[in-house]
Amino acid sequence: MSKRLMTALYWFLAFEFVLGAVTKYWPGDTIFSSAYSVKFVEWGYPSWMRFVVGALEGAAAVLLVIPDKRTRFLGAITLMFVLTGAATTHIVNHDPAVESWAAPAHLLIMGILALANWPADWRDLLRARTAQTARTTHPSREMSTM
């Protein structure tokens, strides 16, 4: 895929999850569904859990649009955890397919994006980036700073 198309995909997915985060914080019904404060209780969770899920979705959406493999990987992995919980919740609560298809579909997409941005070494996720690391990771950047 071309770089522009992939960037557009990341931005589209981030927009979807920011919208999802906003609906979790919205106090009442939205144009998409009934109030999440009610839905979370119906699913067996405390009402405040929607704020945790919304915060994770919003933070992961921001990570997806930062053009760095490490941050995109962390965003995709975070969303994989959230979406695993969402898909499991829909299965356990026997929600109709029309309400349940999005979570497993997005889980599959995030799995693909996580694999596409997989770090060469797990320790790379924890290391601070230095100028030297950035130059060795992205040689094209070194040429542009000269």
Summarize this, please?
With 146 residues, this protein is mainly alpha-helical. It has helices at residues 3-25, 36-42, 49-65, 69-92, 97-100, 102-116, 131-137, 139-145.
Written description of the protein model:
The protein is an all-alpha fold and 146 residues long. It is 71% helix and 0% strand. The protein contains 8 helices and no strands. The protein has helices at residues 3-25, 36-42, 49-65, 69-92, 97-100, 102-116, 131-137, 139-145. The longest helix has 24 residues, at 69-92. The two termini are 30 Å apart. Mean pLDDT is 85; it is low at 141-146.
| Shape label | elongated
Number of strands: 0
Average residue-wise pLDDT:
85
Q: What Rg is obtained from the alpha carbons, in whole angstroms?
A: 18 Å
Number of helices: 8
Main sheet makeup: none
Instruction: State the helical fraction.
Output: over 70%
Written as H for each helix and E for each strand, in order along the chain, the element string is: HHHHHHHH
Tell me the span between the first and last alpha carbons. 30 Å
- Poorly predicted runs: 141-146
Structural class: mainly alpha
- Assembly type of the shown chains? single chain
How much of the sequence lies in strands comes to: under 5%
List its salient traits.
146 residues, mainly alpha, 0% strand
